[in-house]
Amino acid sequence: MLLQISEPGQGPDPHQRKLAVGIDLGTTNSLVATVRSGTAQTLPDAGGEHILPSVVHYGSQCTMTGGEARRLAAEDPLNTIISVKRFMGRGIADIQGLNGVLPYRFTRTDQGMPFIETVQGEKSPVQVSADILKTLRRRAEETLGGELLGAVITVPAYFDDAQRQATKDAAKLAGLDVLRLLNEPTAAAVAYGLDDGGEGVIAVYDLGGGTFDISILRLHKGVFEVLATGGDTALGGDDFDRCVASWILQHSGLDMAALTPEEQRKLLDAACEAKVALTDEECIEIVFKDWCATLDRKTFNSLIDPLIDRTLKSVKKSLRDAKLKTVDIDNVVMVGGSTRVLQVRERVAELIGKEPLTNIDPDRVVAVGAALQADVLAGNKSADDLLLLDVIPLSLGLETMGGLMEKVIHRNTTIPVARAQEFTTFKDGQTALAIHVLQGEREVIETNRSLARFVLNGIPPMPAGLARIRVTFQVDADGLLSVSAREQSTGVEAYVEIKPSYGLSEGQITNMLQDSYAFAQEDRSARKLLEARVEAERIYEALESALKKDGNILLLPEEYNHLLSEARRLAEATKSQDVEFIIQVTEQVAKASEVFAGRRMNAGIQAALSGHSVQDLADSVDNSDRLEE
Ligand code: ADP
Ligand code: MG
Q1: What is the pTM of this model?
Q2: Based on the domain organization, do 332 and 477 belong to the same domain?
Q3: Mean pLDDT, the chain, integer
């Protein structure tokens, strides 16, 4: 929070509102909105246009954004960047599939993100997004007549840490203070006021230009929980245009390959115009080159029905993921320009058995919700006004001994949140701790995503299990993670802010979640086995090092040999797949070494062990997990 101080005698005008905006930074289109005279409204440019196409043209003379830039896409495709949101926070490997579809030349990478080569030099996706945001910021400042306090920027619910961080970086570059990143479906639900004291399940159906997202949210005590997300990153209104375009080609006898790029663009524009017109008209005349024909709504519907089928399949799948039925849905919110198509509305209504909410303009609804949230965060509403909260989509945790993931913050925890957990060392004299931060739901680390690794050095040498290392995970209100580790007795610390080099796709997140359900049983058994092995190895190590140190002095030769063979038996048992067997042998060996541990204690040979038998020592650390050097 910023504290503002006014000069003596010049108190702030109580009616002066702080200027804050909501920004929908879309794949196809972007908008900026603010609350004025009590209502949230999107802001138009000087020409009266509210929608800013998310396109940037880097010319040799100047940079253009929006509609102007889009008109140059056909003429100068290499320097006209469209759909840059698809590259945000992603690595080269993540976008390989798009490489053939989009014409750009990708060059060197920074933090895994590919750069795009233009006549103005290399541009990172963050810079391109910043240019879009700058245009919206300027528009807002000119319209509202002042500098902005900050902005709420929306991101898809499935955006991971890297994608969110990239969005924040773009805002910073555009000179915007980010009050919060907000999930797009949550923003849409807020625009409809569904957060007002409501409870229930909300499905947000978002069909944009090139992407389809379905989110199932549960609203409970003012908190939106994302129950499931799904969709298709290559399905949207642009595909409707292509359907109409191929209908035109088919009926006019023209061949796509014979058209110039310019004509191809014109064909798609004609198709898009027809599509939009069919929302209000029963039929529409299409003119292309010297061919002309009428397309009626019924025919249009049959052209796009297979595409709508695909979206409905995703809806059903997400409901299954959320373990819900269509009757459980209390509200359906329609988002995205393509939900203007009547057939889309009708078929969604038919599937869910409920009329979807459509009275707020579907391509403005996300920006409107973001503006409402920005107004609250800027302090223009009273403090007890509901502060909207989001949750983290995948659990966060770290790797412990034996390749297990220990979850520190569980999936669907409301953010902001900080959680700390204590860990200890695995080996005697261990002075460093490797901390491996993971994201995902599975128990075994290989199947989860690695976010970062760092090392805590300078732990004083102590017997295994005595060091106390407190690891704190903090997720801020934007869903960004920082992790710190501190050894309690010395206060040595290490810290990372997580900026993973590239992000997870929506599909990957969905898969990771599904796998975590599918493999839960298998994972639990794997975890038990790994845990048993870790425990066995620990007892083995303790016994072996004690034998080496004091075995000759404190034990009779036959006692020594017996314990040595017990240690070997334990080492052998560790290799077994039988959890119960490993546990049994571990207990037997621990028991067999008790007398020896007692003698060592009495002899006072190892000060650090005084007051503890080997077993006591094991018990005392049972609650903490062990991390290896
Ligand atoms: P995004 O979220 O991907 O940025 P939008 O929500 O702005 O995209 O949706 C853009 C898409 O909506 C485009 O494919 C556009 O053709 C389509 N669209 C806009 N208005 C209409 C309309 N009246 N009828 C049908 N489609 C429309
Ligand atoms: Mg959108």
Answers
A1: 0.65
A2: no
A3: 83
